[in-house]
Design brief:
33% of the residues are buried. The chain has a single domain, classed as Rossmann fold (3-Layer(aba) Sandwich). The two termini are 24 Å apart. The chain is an alpha/beta fold. A 7-stranded mixed β-sheet has the order 1-3-4-2-5-6-7, sandwiched between helices. Helices cover 35% and strands 21% of the residues.
Length: 204
């Protein structure tokens, strides 16, 4: 898939105010400072479509971007903020949960994890919530440029081993690097194939 257009549509904290049409949506979420904005910019070939920041918790709303006039990329607030109040965390968690549980246009979420670290409880808990709620998701390992190939392979294998302790099978996963454009084609091909499958089902 080639990204020909990527435009900001709306930011809000209420699912009811999200776009009304039935275009498929792919939501990106992860812990603060996992490299989500950089990944979104890399995937869309835009330097500043999503705002990057050295301060965790920069994204605090549901942000919709329309891609190729055919699907939405949704940039969601991270979980595990370092510098927001407990009341804000509860507020963010509430509308994140509302989005996942009420947004019928959501096709798949991408849960981002930093490939350099061992599985973090907060990530595993969030994936468990997604699984128990029946919300489709794939895992995107970020910052692969920080490790050598064998270390990447070892980290992914170890992560999968941990997941298999509570999952029957490991969710679809991708290895990426925003600075090196690693994994870009894999993620976009997954989205394209999913969109084509949706279109095929709708035309029957």
């Amino acid at each position: 898939m080639k990204i020909k257009s990527a435009e900001f549509v709306v930011s809000n904290s209420e699912v009811a105010k999200c776009p009304k049409n039935d275009l498929p949506e792919y939501a990106f979420i992860g812990r603060s400072n996992v490299g989500k904005s950089s990944l979104i910019n890399m995937l869309t070939d835009r330097k500043s479509l999503a705002k990057t920041s050295g301060r965790p918790g920069k994204t605090q709303l549901i942000n919709h971007f329309i891609i190729n006039s055919g699907w939405y990329l949704v940039d969601l607030p991270g979980y595990g903020y370092a510098r927001v109040s407990k009341s804000s965390k509860r507020k963010f968690q509430a509308f994140i949960t509302d989005y996942f549980e009420k947004r019928q246009q959501l096709v798949s979420a991408f849960v981002l994890v930093d490939i350099r670290h061992k599985p973090q409880p907060i990530d595993l808990e969030f994936m468990q919530y997604m699984g128990e709620s029946g919300i489709p998701f794939a895992i995107i390992f970020t910052k692969a440029d920080k490790l050598k190939p064998k270390a990447i392979e070892r980290q992914v294998s170890d992560y999968c081993d941990v997941l298999l302790k509570s999952w029957e099978e490991v969710p679809q996963h991708f290895v990426t690097s925003s600075s090196k454009s690693i994994g870009k084609d894999d993620v976009l091909e997954f989205i394209e194939a999913t969109n084509q499958e949706i279109e095929s089902l709708r035309s029957k």
